[in-house]
Each structure stands twice: as structure tokens, then as C-alpha cells.
């Protein structure tokens, strides 16, 4: 079983509240989303594992069980071309839960006209594989978002 923790402090709002049909429709995978606390922030690894994909606006960490967890920093933030994002890790890095991955500022994302909401998704999982999914609660960075069986 994998415990997935929040890469950011904020409010867990659930995927249905994400202003993007690909995430809200669970097309990428099940999980939840975090409306991040406003101000400069560092997104951290939600599980121990290897960074298999890393972009300014999104990253995937795969744990020892082969569970890939996508953290997407904001919606449509790929259109910002990395502006306002600083990579703190590299693809291929082995990370521990809580290690810094990307520095960014949700306020700047909003100022650019994008949503700062951050989907945290269990890739290639079925919805019934997740339990205790956080929704409508405040979460600290490192607080549990869901468990993956």
C-alpha cells in the first residue's frame, strides 16, 4: 500500500472541483486536488521514489511498488513556458517524501490568468484502488491525501 501525501499546503478540494475536464473527469486517473496556500511555495515529493517525468508545471514520482503519482501545478500552466517555476530536482533523481521538486508561486499563476489548483493523481489506477481520499479539508504539506492499495 502507498500513502500519498500532499506536495503543498492548502485545501484538498477533490478532482470534481478542478476547472479542467481531463482532471475533473478522472481521465488521467483518480486522486484529489489541492487549492494551494497563496504565496511563494515549494512543491515536494508526495511519495518516496524516482522522478520519472519533470516539467516546470508538473512531475511524476514512481514508488518502489510501481505506483506513479502525478502532481500538476495549476491548470493550463504549461502555457506559461516555465516562467515563475524553478526546478529543484532532476529527472531520474531518487527522492524521499517531502523532498523539494519545484519552487513556484500560485499568486503569479493567478495573475497570469490560470488556476493554481493542483491535481494529485494516481496514474494507471482504478478509482476503487484509492481509499481515504482527502476532500473539503485543509492539508499541510506532507499531510495524507489518499492511500493506494
Terminal Cα span: 5 Å
SS strand fraction: 35-45%
Provide the gyration radius in Å. 14 Å
Main β sheet profile: 8 strands, antiparallel
Number of strands: 14
CATH first level: Mainly Beta
SSE order, as H and E? EEHEEEEEEEEHEEEE
- The CATH topology annotation reads as Glucose Permease (Domain IIA)
- The name of the CATH superfamily reads Glucose Permease (Domain IIA)
Taken together, the total number of domains comes to 1
Regions with pLDDT < 50 over 5+ consecutive residues?
none
Helical content stands at under 10%
CATH architectural designation: Distorted Sandwich
* Integer average pLDDT: 97
In DSSP terms (H or I, runs of 4 or more residues), the helix count works out at 2
Q: Which geometry do the CA atoms define? A: globular
Structural class: mainly beta
* Largest beta sheet: strand ordering: 9-5-6-7-11-3-2-13
GO molecular function: kinase activity
Organism: Streptomyces pini
Protein name: PTS system N-acetylglucosamine-specific IIA component, Glc family
InterPro entries: Dup_hybrid_motif, PTS_EIIA_1_perm, PTS_EIIA_component
Describe, in plain words, how this protein is organized in 3D:
This protein has 149 residues and is mainly β. The chain has a single domain (2-139), classed as Glucose Permease (Domain IIA) (Distorted Sandwich), CATH 2.70.70. It is 7% helix and 40% strand. The protein has two helices and 14 strands. The protein has helices at 21-24, 106-111, and strands at residues 2-5, 10-12, 31-36, 41-44, 49-55, 58-62, 68-72, 86-87, 94-95, 100-104, 118-123, 130-131, 137-139, 144-148. The strands form three sheets. An eight-stranded antiparallel β-sheet has the order 9-5-6-7-11-3-2-13, with no helix packed on it. A hairpin with a 5-residue loop joins β6 (58-62) and β7 (68-72). The radius of gyration is 14 Å and the shape is globular. The N and C termini lie close together (5 Å).
Amino acid at each position: 500500500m502507498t500513502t500519498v501525501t500532499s506536495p503543498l499546503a492548502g485545501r484538498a478540494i477533490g478532482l470534481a472541483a478542478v476547472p479542467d475536464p481531463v482532471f475533473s473527469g478522472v481521465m488521467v486517473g483518480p486522486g484529489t486536488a489541492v487549492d494551494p496556500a497563496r504565496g511563494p511555495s515549494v512543491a515536494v515529493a508526495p511519495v518516496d521514489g524516482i522522478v520519472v517525468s519533470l516539467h516546470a508545471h508538473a512531475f511524476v514520482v514512481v514508488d518502489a511498488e510501481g505506483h506513479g503519482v502525478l502532481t500538476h501545478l495549476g491548470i493550463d500552466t504549461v502555457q506559461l513556458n516555465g516562467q515563475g517555476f524553478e526546478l529543484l530536482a532532476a529527472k531520474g533523481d531518487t527522492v524521499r517524501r517531502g523532498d523539494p521538486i519545484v519552487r513556484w508561486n500560485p499568486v503569479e499563476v493567478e495573475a497570469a490568468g490560470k488556476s493554481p489548483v493542483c491535481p494529485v493523481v494516481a496514474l494507471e489506477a482504478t478509482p476503487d484502488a484509492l481509499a481515504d481520499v482527502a476532500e473539503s479539508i485543509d492539508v499541510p504539506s506532507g499531510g495524507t491525501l489518499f492511500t493506494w492499495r
